Structure formats: C-alpha cells, structure tokens
DNA sequence: AACGTGACAAGGC
DNA sequence: AGCCTTGCCACGT
C-alpha cells in the first residue's frame, strides 16, 4: 500500500477542501470530491488523505463515508483514533454512525446536483 | 498494457 | 437495515 510519491495537483485541491471542514463537523468523501470539482471521484479523496504525513494539521478525521460511518475496520487502531478525535470535537456516534442532520457540514445547504435526471 | 485493489457511492433486493 | 452489484478512477504489480 505504498503511496504515490508524486502528489497530483488534484490531491492539493482535495486537501485544501478538507481544511475547510469546521471543527465539530464532518463531510463525506463524495462531498469533498464535488467541492473540489472532481465529481464522481470520491475514491481519489481517500488516496489524497492517505498521502498526508502524520504531523499534518489537515483534519482528515472529519471525512467519513456516505453512510455516516468511519471507513476503517472497527478492529483497526486507526478507526479508534479517528473516532476519538471526533469525540474530542463533540461529534458523537449513534451506534457507530454519525447523524448528518447534526454534524453534517453541508447538511441543509446542499447545492443542487440535479445532473442525474 | 491488463488486471486487481481500494480511507467511495448509489441503486436494487 | 443489511448485503450485493455496478460505476468510478488512480495506482501498483
């Protein structure tokens, strides 16, 4: 699982978007992709986040999947690290799941995306 | 160049 | 609510 050492420009854009997520709020991979002008490239967000060095200030933990869950295995240590970082910001879970209604950064102010007619 | 994989997502059962 | 399939696309082998 080596990470690509050549950081594509897309990664930079994605990480800038992630930095904008307010403390105490969360956003999904898909939302970050759209806000970065990369529709349908949610997976790329995962790659970008994985390329972040440990010391980075980027709030990677505020990115979760569309189901409102953490995308790591429950048994992994990184899962618990993310969960604890969120809890520290006041984001709590309802059974392993976060309610977008309460903590979704874009909840309510969703910009129409009706290109799926 | 082909193929499998993945910190994803949406739709069908 | 789960589980499965399909669509996506960048990467490593």
Structure description:
The chain is mainly α and 117 residues long. Helix content is 37%, strand content 3%. Helix 1 (9-19) crosses helix 3 and helix 2 (29-35) packs across helix 3. It is globular. The structure holds a DNA duplex (13 and 13 nucleotides).
**Could you give me the name of the CATH homologous superfamily?**
Winged helix-like DNA-binding domain superfamily/Winged helix DNA-binding domain
Total number of domains: 1
Beta strand count: 2
What is the oligomer described by this structure? Answer: single chain
Helix content: 25-40%
Low-pLDDT parts are 1-6, 112-117
SSE topology string: HEHHEHH
Secondary-structure-based class equals mainly alpha
Dominant shape: globular
Estimate the strand proportion.
under 5%
According to CATH, the fold-level topology is: Arc Repressor Mutant, subunit A
Report the CATH architecture.
Orthogonal Bundle
Would you tell me the overall average pLDDT? 87
Compute the gyration radius: what is it? Answer: 14 Å
Spatial gap, N to C terminus: 38 Å
- The CATH class, by name, is Mainly Alpha
Strand order of the largest sheet: 1-2
């Amino acid at each position: 699982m080596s990470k690509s050492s050549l950081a594509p420009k897309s990664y930079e854009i994605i990480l800038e978007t992630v930095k904008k997520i307010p403390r105490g709020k969360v956003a999904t991979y898909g939302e970050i992709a759209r806000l970065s002008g990369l529709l349908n490239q949610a997976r790329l967000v995962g790659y970008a986040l994985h390329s972040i060095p440990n010391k980075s200030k980027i709030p990677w933990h505020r990115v979760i999947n569309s189901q409102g869950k953490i995308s790591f295995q429950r048994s992994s240590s990184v899962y618990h690290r993310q969960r604890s970082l969120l809890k520290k910001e006041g984001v709590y879970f309802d059974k392993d799941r976060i309610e977008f209604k309460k903590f979704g950064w874009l909840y309510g102010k969703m910009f129409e995306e009706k290109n799926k007619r």
